[in-house]
Each structure stands twice: as C-alpha cells, then as structure tokens.
Amino acid sequence: MTPTVLVLDADPPPRLGRLTGRARIVHTDAAHLAERLPAADVLLVWDFTSHAVREAWPGDGPRPRWVHTASAGVDHLMCPELAASDTVVTNARGVFDQPVAEYVAALVLAVAKDLPRTLELQRERTWRHREGRRVAGTRACVVGSGPIGRATARTLKALGVTTALVGRVPRTGVHGPADLDRLIARADWVVAAAPLTGQTYRMFDAHRFGVMQPSAFFVNVGRGGLVDEEALARALARRWIAGAALDVFAAEPLPADSPLWELPGLIVSPHMSGDTAGWRDELGVQFVASYERWAAGRPLPNVVDKTRGYVPGH
Amino acid sequence: MTPTVLVLDADPPPRLGRLTGRARIVHTDAAHLAERLPAADVLLVWDFTSHAVREAWPGDGPRPRWVHTASAGVDHLMCPELAASDTVVTNARGVFDQPVAEYVAALVLAVAKDLPRTLELQRERTWRHREGRRVAGTRACVVGSGPIGRATARTLKALGVTTALVGRVPRTGVHGPADLDRLIARADWVVAAAPLTGQTYRMFDAHRFGVMQPSAFFVNVGRGGLVDEEALARALARRWIAGAALDVFAAEPLPADSPLWELPGLIVSPHMSGDTAGWRDELGVQFVASYERWAAGRPLPNVVDKTRGYVPGH
Fold this sequence. Notes:
The structure is a homodimer. Chain A is an alpha/beta fold. Chain A folds into 2 domains: 4-94 and 278-295, NAD(P)-binding Rossmann-like Domain (Rossmann fold, 3-Layer(aba) Sandwich), CATH 3.40.50; 97-268, NAD(P)-binding Rossmann-like Domain (Rossmann fold, 3-Layer(aba) Sandwich), CATH 3.40.50. Helices cover 29% and strands 15% of the residues of chain A. The first copy, chain A, has a 6-stranded parallel β-sheet. The first copy, chain A, has a 5-stranded parallel β-sheet with strand order 2-1-3-4-5. In chain A, strand 8, helix 8 and strand 9 form a beta-alpha-beta unit. Chains A and B meet through helix 4 and helix 5 of A and helix 4 and helix 5 of B. Chains A, B: Keywords: NAD, Oxidoreductase. Chains A, B: This is D-2-hydroxyacid dehydrogenase. Chains A, B: InterPro entries: D-isomer_2_OHA_DH_cat_dom (IPR006139), D-isomer_DH_CS (IPR029753), D-isomer_DH_NAD-bd (IPR006140), NAD(P)-bd_dom_sf (IPR036291). Chains A, B: Residues 29-304 form the D-isomer specific 2-hydroxyacid dehydrogenase catalytic domain. Chains A, B: It comes from Streptomyces dangxiongensis.
C-alpha cells in the first residue's frame, strides 16, 4: 500500500512531485492536524513556525512512524508522548549551516565597521568620519557545537577571529559547559547557535550578560528560548554589553508592540539567518531523498535524539 | 644639523615625540605650506584630505628631499614638478590593507543578507521574512592588485567567493586590463581598489556599468576619481546593476546637496574603509620608523613610482 505523507504546511513544499505514485501526499493546516495524524505514515512538518504537533500528537493511538521537520531545531514539535514513542524524528541538519555562518559573519563585520550608523548618517546626509574596528585578532565564543555552530566557528576563523566552540560535552576542539563563563568573559563576540533543550533554556540570563565584557556583542541565531529577553534588555540599557542582534525570539513573529524593536544597540531580524535563495528547494530535495531511503527500509539520516532534542554526534 | 620635518596637518600626529632631538618638527596648515616648504628637509602629509601640496610645491627652488603621505593613495599630492624632481615620495602602504579588506567583506555580506533592509524594517517595527543570498560560491572581481586589492581578494576567497584580481600588468594570480570587461561581466561583486592615475581615472563609466550583470553590486574603496559618478547614478536608476557602495567620492566630504545621498541602492560612507581604532597611531609609528632609516642614510620603504602614481612591485 502507498504510504501516506501528511504535510503540515502554509505554502506547499516544492519537489514533492517527485514522489508521485510512491507516496500519497495529504496537506493539512494546524486545525485539522489532530484528526489526520492517526492515518498518516509520515508527518512532514513543513511549517516549522507551528507548534501544532505538540498539541495534536495522538498519544498511544495510531500515529506516524516517522516525523521530519524542515528545520534544524525540533523544540517546536517535541512533547513527552512523541519522545516516549517509537516514532523516528529527523531534521533538516545541513541545509542551514553555511547560510547561518555567513549571517553571523555579516553581523560581526557590519558592527565592527559601524555600518548601521553609516546608514543612519546617510539618511541625514551627514558626512561623519568614524573609526571601525579590526575583526582579525578579536575573540569569539560560539555556543552550540552542532553543524551550524561549527560552520560559524569556521567562517569566523577564516576572518582571523580567534574562536572557541562550546558544546554539551567537551571533546577535541569543543569546550564543555564548565568553560562557558570563562570564554564569554573575554569574547568580543558571543554567538548563541545551540538547540533549545531543557539545559539551554534561557542560558543567556542576567548572570551571563553580567559576565560578558562591556564591549561585547551578543548574537542569537539559535532559538529565542535560549535568551532571557528581559535580562538582555536590562543588560543593554545598563551598558553591561555593547550591543546585540537577535534573529530569533521567544514569540515569533515579534509583536509590533514589543519593546525589543526599539531597544538601543539591538538589531532585530525576522528569523531569516539560515534562509537563502533556494533554501525551500533544498529542504524539499532533502525530504525526498530521506523518503526514498525510508520507503526502501534503509536507515534515515539526521535522526534526532528525542531526549536531548537534537541530532547527536559529530 | 637637525633636519626639519614640516607636517601638514589638521590634528597633530601621534608618536612624533619619539623624534625629539633628532628632528625639528614644524607644523603648518595649507595656507602657510608654500612659504614653509623651501626650508623643510622632509614633508609629512598627515592631512591626506588636503590637495595643498600640488599648489604649494616649489618648482625648481629649494624643496624637501623626502615627502611621506599618511595614505595609500598619492593622487592628492602628485604634480608634474614633484614627479620631475629628485624628491623621494613614500606612502603608508600596509596600514590599510586588512581593514579595507574587512570593510569590503562587511559590505558584501551585509548586502547578501539584506541587512540594510532589515534595519529599515526594524524602524517600522515590521516583521517581514526575506531570503538572503549565499556568499560562498558567488564571484568577485577586485580591480587593483596592490596590497589592498590583494588583501581584499584573500578575505573574499576565505568566505568562499571565487575572486579574480585585475592589475595594470598581468602576472601570476593577476589578470591584466584586457580581461577586465570579461571578468566584471560575470561578477556578482565588482570592487574598485586601484590607485587613481591617468589610466584609472573614471575607468568605471557607462560602458563598464553596462557590461556588469543586473544583479551585480559595485564597491569603491579606492578613490572617487575611479568612478564616473553620473554614469553610476544612471546605471542604478536604470537597474543596469543592483546596487553600489561608495566610500570615496570625486568631492569629499560629499556635499549635503549631492544627489548621491539618496540614490536608491547606493550606500554612502565617509571615506572610512581603511580606518580602524589605532590607525593614526600605526601611521605615526610607520613614519617614525621610516624617518629613522632616512636619517641613517638607509633606503626608504614604500617608495612611490611618481610616474605611475603608486608603489610598484608585488
């Protein structure tokens, strides 16, 4: 029997046409997810902004054997019932690495060269010479040692930035959590690129911002939940750190009345760091390739450790 | 007798105190330059925005034996009489290479990630997801094969950008002028980092902007005179190219009523690409080191070929 692939989407994913005859593709919105889940063999969480899976997951009842999310993080879909089940969860590991790394480099360089101020002064037709900073020779601490964190560290190193990587478990080239405070205390750039898990929830709090240098710049390209946003706002207001850029937020889209929009020293971007022209295509191609392996009974790539909340290993 | 060092400055240079007892330091503004030049052994052009040397140079009369400019370019001081004289001209080669390279990388990445638009949308408190571009795999053409051009090419290559370098004379790793149109025709990023000479004056004209791709982004970190600004304005208005960033202009400071300030797609910055915290210090240190060699009768570094208008050689 042709397996049923249930797609939770807003816009239909590209490339699934390749599965014609090999899969029965059923689209759903969040409202109809719960009623359609039991009949599905596979769930493709294409709308990675939705938290609907957590509420709709059918406990002990009939359920998909495989859930794939078109995202690096899985925090939006994990729930105890899914974690306890024998359903395999996979993610889009690999698609976002280089784009996110370049995005972080763009922020670091733009801030070092005072580009946001240059654009402001241009609007005022004001010629005001300023001194930038050299990026080569500065220090970064990248928190998160998955493919995105590692690509970010590689790119910063290529720019001459001395970069330390922090992960859950110390290993060659990766510091453990015990080194975190020491490393962020001397970093010019602190980059959050970790998955959101029980351990990482609000790990960037008043204590951590207090440990950083007054000249430090903080970047979050991981998940909004990694940061205590109120603590960050206070740290910026009190000049504990020099500035920050958030691409992810506790609530997305960031509400129009959020004070974060106008916080001095904060750059707000709409969860776009990993998204480059062609990315939806890449995500579609990746799912099709995984589906072909699954249908052939072969092991799936990028299997998430449902307890830890990410794909473990190097 | 203690040699006289005449310093053309607006703000006094740092580090010259090291020459106490070994040089008689005399400061001058542009208005008094002509009357003081004949008595000077050395002229330090610290105010590199001034064109006063060209008018004040004392033809056949007594004149400094050495002129050093605290800049990479020498276009602001060269004149036929200085070129014909036996006075040695040196420049600040080496101080600006890495800063300018990083500045170009900052622009390339910021544009690829649509950062200027992100900052605009933030002011409007608008969450609007967009797709950036991957920088790795794009193509750049850097025009100018001196230390600044080479450092820029190295930095772009480190980001995965396929980068061609164009110089006056083809050699290993450097294309000659004959390849220029072919290379800019397929470049995503065209970077002007050449000295201003008779050959390079307005080399970026309507023809060159017409050859570039509609998606191309043009950056000028060389000299304003490299670009026909009216042709660039038309090229942007007609969408011949996607955008541009100018750090240097035919007239500096750019007048408040210049149409360039508000040209859609153009980023205007105040001739700051090479200037990072500590740069004035570095320039002072560099002059002091050169002075010590000169006073000892040893050969000077960074001697400019006065006919070509730059320091030749690799």
